[in-house]
Each structure stands twice: as C-alpha cells, then as structure tokens.
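Honest question from a wet-lab person: if I give you the sequences of every part of a complex, can you actually get the arrangement of the whole thing, not just the pieces? Trying it with mine:
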Amino acid sequence: MTAPRRMLLNAFHMNCVSHIQQGLWVRDDTRQLDYTQFAPWVELAQILEKGCFDALFLADVMGLYDTYRGSAATSIIEAMQVPVNDPALLIPAMAYVTEHLGFAFTSSVLQTPPFTFARQLSTLDHLTRGRVAWNIVTSYLPNAAASLGYGALPPHEARYARADEYLDVTYKLWEGSWEDGAVRRDTHRRIYADPDKIHPIHHVGTHYTVAGPHLSEPSPQRTPLLFQAGSSPRGRAFAAKHAECVFIVTSRHSLRGASSIIHDIRTQAVGLGRHPEDIRFFQGLSPVVGGTEAEANAKEAAYLAQFSTEGALAHLSGSIGVDLGAIDLDCPLTSFAFDAMRGAITDLIASAPDKTVTFRDLVRSRLAGQLVTGTPEQIADTLQEWFEAGVDGFNLVYSVTPGTFVDFIDGVVPVLQARGLVQRAYTPGPLRQKIFGQARLPARHPAAAYRRG
Ligand SMILES: Cc1cc2nc3c(=O)[nH]c(=O)nc-3n(C[C@H](O)[C@H](O)[C@H](O)COP(=O)(O)O)c2cc1C
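Yes, you can. This is the full assembly:
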C-alpha cells in the first residue's frame, strides 16, 4: 500500500546556537540562545504541529569544525555548531506536547554501538507512539573520529561499509528478534512474554559481534523511518538500498540537478527490488516570507547584512575538509588556477553561474542560495515548481527561530493547502503510516528479510 503523493514539510534544526545561517544568532527576534532550555523546543513543536508539518528534522555532528585556519577558534567564536547538545534527548519533551508531529534525528554509525542505539530508538518509538525517524550519517569531521576512539576518520568507503553492517545489526534487532505475538501481557496466566518467540541474533561481522536478543519489545514502527543525506556515488547506492527519505541540497536554481539525483537513486532502488515511490526526497530551502515583495526583500537584505562570512567559511571548510583560510576572498573566481586546487574547491567554483564574482561573493551567495524570498504566493509557486519536478518535500532552514516557521505557517501553508498540495489535517498512526500508508517497512525493504514467520 502506498499513500498518495503530497508535498511533505519538515523544519530543519539542530540542538545548538548556530546551525546553517551563521551570524544571525545575535538578532533579538530569534531564540537560538535558549537552545539549552525546554521552552523553545516544546513551543516549536507545537507551532509545527499547528502548521501540519510532517516532522522536525534535527541535524547533529559529534565533533568540532577545526579545518578553517587550522583551528576550531572561528567555530567557537561564532557558535558554529559548537556547543552542540544531544538531539535525541529533546524528543520526549516535544512528543509529550504533540500528537502527530514526527521527529527525525541524526546519529552517526561511528558514535553508539548498534545494540545500544537500537534500544534508544525503540524507547523513543514507544514514547512517541511511532513518530521517530533516524537520519543515518557516517560522519565527516576528523575531530569526531578522534574523539570517538577511531583515531583518524576511517576512509569514505570504509565508513559506508561500516554503515551497511550497522544497519544489518539494527534490522536484526528491530525486525527479527521479537516475533509478532511474543508479547502476551496475560495478567491472568501471569505471562508477560513468550520466550519461544524472542530470539538472539548471533551477529558476527567485520565490525560488530552482537548476540542479542533485542532488549526492547516491538515498538509501533519497529524500524524507525529511515532518512539519509549523502550524495556521493557510494552515498547514493546506500540511499537506494536503505533510505525511505533522502535529504538533498542542490542549488535553488537547479531543478534539473535535483531531478537527476532523484532519478539515479530511484533507478538503483528499483534494481534492488524496491519501488520508486518507496523513497521520498526532501530539498533544503529557506523561506523568507513578506506581506509584500518589498517587505520580503527588505527582510532578506537584513539577514544577508548580518550573515557571518567567517562563520560560513569555518562551516564550509569543515564540510569539504579543505582550509579556505588561505584563499584570497576578494579575488574574482576567474583568477584561481584550477589545476592547483582541490576538487572540492573546483566544484564550488564550477557551481557559480557568474565567474566574475569574488570568492567572498560565492560564499555569501551559497548562504543566500537556499533563500526563497517573496510573498506567500510567490514562495508557494517556487515550492510547487520543485514538487512538480519530482521533489517530494522540503527541509526548511530557518533564518530566525521560530519566526521563519511561524511566517511560513501563517502565510505559505494556507496557500499550499488551498492548492491541495499539503495536508490540512493529520492522518492517524505512526510517522511511516502518515507518509507511506503503512506503519512497518514494506516486505521489499532489506530489513524485512530478517522477519520471522
Ligand atoms: C543535506 C545534508 C545534510 C547532512 N546532515 C548531516 C548531519 O546532520 N550530520 C552529519 O554528520 N552529516 C550530515 N551530512 C553528511 C552526510 O550524511 C554524509 O556523511 C556526507 O555527505 C558524506 O557522504 P557523501 O560523500 O555520500 O555525500 C549531511 C549531508 C547532506 C547532503
């Protein structure tokens, strides 16, 4: 069974001061400084549920961005994803004050043994009544690997190989360890569960040895809804096999780029026996809503004026693993000698439509590149265009929180609802059921191979 296609909406956030749009945390109209408190999170969850959002998506990293100028100093000064608190621990409080909103959080396969992680996830899936999703990442910050006991960051290929095994272990625990019907809750005969229906997993692999059985009884979704973000060839193959939702960030002007990633991953998924509609794709965009076009433009100009180029360079340097501190920011892109540059910088420059701009302009335009600025109707038009090009939904990036989401919900959501693009009310059931029409993974997903009976 597959639910009819509708536009999906997530809010993109992180349990830290400054997430994507660096420098804006100093504004009076944002609650980023309160991130250690309950109030901004539970209030955000209530706002998003009022706006019929599908989920709050929480990013995470397990290390410092310390590539820029060879140190973490800029990241620390700018609160650029550090300090960063645990995203999963926010979820119970937010789930308690909501009924339908989903909660996706990021956890790297390097950070927690799969046996422990599977129990954490099952606990959250129980407490949220099936509203939890896992964004599977493999880590890219060397500092994360150094602090998690790996020394150097394992090579890209090795990280994905580890991720494949990590998922196998968790699938065995979530899907195969406790049979349906294992839990009896028979107060009369004083039998809580049937030992014959609870099985060890006996996993012995390259990275993990896990006896099992799973310690949690089956939760509403068993395996949580699976998100993935990563667009290298290996990342796409991984998504095609495992992911149900894929987070992509292509340039706002590149509908074709998004379509080609979607087509590639869907084709690979079909090759593995899955259906094209088993995977939904989310594009990252940042709406700047105004009552009039002039008001929206003025808002955008104010955000751009406050963006921190230093913070952005620290973020970008860490993300691509290249110190951009050595680059002369005020030289036009045409003056860079391509041959001598690392691939990541060449790609960055290649992405600029106008090569006469400076590297500083390029960094700022990347920051601004995800902004969709205009009246509610104009923003709805842009989202509809993406949707019609094959993107299923959006991870909306904030400039100010919760203001960006409040403006979007008050202005854009009613327009999208009037066009029949987004939901007006939630359907009952767990998160996977709300998006795909069934609470459990379909039989054609690799996790289902571990089911018994
Ligand atoms: C849109 C997007 C969001 C991501 N969010 C996170 C994150 O929150 N935490 C993290 O550790 N990695 C994050 N990543 C990194 C990826 O999961 C992946 O590890 C990285 O992109 C390298 O994989 P790739 O080479 O296949 O692209 C994100 C990547 C993308 C494209």
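Two things worth pointing out. The pocket of flavin mononucleotide is lined by residues 59-61, 106, 108, 137-140, 156, 229-232, 234-235, 247, 249, 284 (CB under 6 Å). The chain has a mean pLDDT of 94.
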